[in-house]
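Question (not urgent): is this output format expected?
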Amino acid sequence: MIRLLGVHRGVAALLATLVFGAALVVSALPRMVESSLDAAARSVIGSAPPATASLAVQFTRRFDLTPMRTTAEAARADTAWRALLPPALREVADPAPLIEITAPPMLINERAHRYLTLKWVSGADRRVRYVEGGPPGPRSGTRFEVAVPAVAATEMSIRTGDTVRLGELTAKVTGLFEPARPADRFWALEPELTYVIHQRVPLAIEDDLIVTALTDGDSLAGAELPMVFRWLVTPAPDRVTAGNAAAVLAATEEFGRRLGRQDLEVALSTGFDRMLQEYLDRLAVTRALITMFLSGLAVVCLGTTALAVLLLVQRVHGDLLLMRARGASLVQVVGACGGAVALAAVPAAAAGQVAAGLVPGAPTAVARLGPAALAAGTVAIACVAVALRQSPGRQSARRRGQGRLTQGRLTGSAARRIVMEILVLVVAVASLHLLRTHGLGTGDAFLAPAPVLLALAAALAVLRAGPALIHLAFRAAARRTAAVPFLGLAAARAVPGAALPVLTLLPAVALAAYGMVTAGGLEEAQRQAAWERTGAEIRVEREQGIPPETLEQITHAPGVRAVVPAAVGTTVAEVGFGGRPATVVAVDLGAYRRLAAGSPLHLPAPGTGALVSPDLSAMRSFEIGWPAQMTVTPAGTVDAMPGVRAGDGALIVLPAAPEHVNTLLIAGDAGAVRPLLPSGARMSTVAGALADITGTPLTAALTAALRVAAAALAAYALAAVAIALTGGAARRAEDLALLRALGLTRRQAGLITVLEAAPLLVLTAVAGLAAGLAMPALLGPGIDLSAYAGGRHGALATAALLPVLPCVVAGALAAGVAAVALAGAYLGGSRGHAG
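Got this back:
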């Protein structure tokens, strides 16, 4: 076995390289993706507002005599709620209790629109630092002692020692506090303790200001006031992973059902289940896409490896015949060749798996078993190939089969081939139909390999149509006097073993092209979504309005190319009974279109009047109260405006420069604009929005996986072409040697070889490119990537379907495969002639 490898060490090295690369990709890619999936789970929980990601058990106490009169009772209730947590949820929950007791806001008697909320939070005393005074003490009759946030005291003009009247109650301010550690997660759960809440009721002309003050817990719980008790269970972000997310979601739902069976009327309030469900939906799509490309990689890698194995078997055929002549049995011959292949493949597969261990991430079942399965499959292919080639009855069976074909009857192998091709076609069409109707990520394992099945069906079509096209070319060449085309095409009609190269090459080119186009389309859709979020290269918003002097400074700032002032606000369109909520955008559409020129934004054309959403287009006119009391006469319709979220309300676009500006649309350098912004202004940029969309771990994992898979498929496609050309080199050299005696030149030998070997490979590359470019349209309805493209539904099925640059790259891949086939065939024929 070692001697066989030594004699044919070039082919053995090629086989080992292919097995190593396949094992590395098949083992490393799932690990990389799984690591990104876990990071995505941590990001989903960690980046969400803690109050949204927490599970809040809430009990509302009325004036009647009910439990919860002390903080000790509230603590015992916390223990009771946590005992109801299912194991999966208990494992990810922070064991530290967080209990709140809150009274409703009470009007400060001597100050209109000023309210004070009394609150107690467990552990708050350890997380505050008193900048003035000290902590509150117990209640004395109707007088509470309270501590107020320092920032709220400044805004509300409250000082230490003040006594505030709250109806029949009074509150004495004993101290002013600020967070001891502002970065503590506690303050994200209790943000109202760090600022004054501003809210405005409908039709009011002034904001209500609400300050939340800390007070003694037992004093608050024992007061005859309506009270809200909340127990917060906060999941730890680093404990939720892609592996346990589904179990945690099921446990959250079970926890809600258990709470519903309690005697005390409590309610579970959380956004944790919704966040997990959205994450799991995206997780399912991501895993399905990765499975799809891994299945394609497996087919291509196995096919390319099989070509290399068959090349090695062909090279050692003479050595094995000598062994048989010396008395070796068929089993011994098969064992010798299989052992030689195992010596090359098994260490290479093990080395690939070890190298993949350097990639961060937990090993999945595919990562563990893939390299071993690849090595075992390689050895099995070698054993089967040798057994078939060395079988004594093989040649006679082939001759008998050819005789039956000449008599017009199908052999059993030909019938089985037709049945297999029909089966592949039926399964491919069925999987495509299910994928388009059910969608990827439904958990159906039959859907993920649909693109691979489509590529295999296209390869079978090429195997059927290719020889017919070559035969037509041969008949045309037979009518000409030139001998080279006739000889080359005559040889091409009888090229043996073309099925495996086509079945390997076409899926490789098709899936590589599909991966490139999908990744490129995803990038374009993400860019489009980023522009639609901001509406301009730079967007500045300020609720209080932007002063004219600030607008003037930004307009003339170095690095600013153009500025378009706008006003965005809400109003009520006086249509129907009670009116219709509407978002109003006042902007010079002509100037806006000039500013956005060259961007992917699609803006409405400026007209002679206002543009309204379709639900208002039937009105001849109607009144609005913002930005001024006016009558709107619709002159056209508009579905959406970039950077504006109308929600369920109507949209009204006033195509004129506003008098009072609260939004600036800017083209230029964000660094030049930022220092000029007034307090309270918010600035967003396309670059920042794009970073938010592409920076999520799931999106990064999917994009990286698509690019890695496409690169691996391209490399194996080129390897398959090279091996296919090398496999027939010896036979072609013998044929050319016969023609050389008749005066065949080096150039003619190269052309004959090109016409013999390259047509089917070039046709396969072109068909693979066409199949890959068609897959986004065929699979588009079933693969929703809007979650990776900033929420733009259908983005990859419309404008970003065939992005120019990825199509060019995919075309370059097909052209490269064709060039390798043509150049390799020509050079091989020339060398064969020279030899």
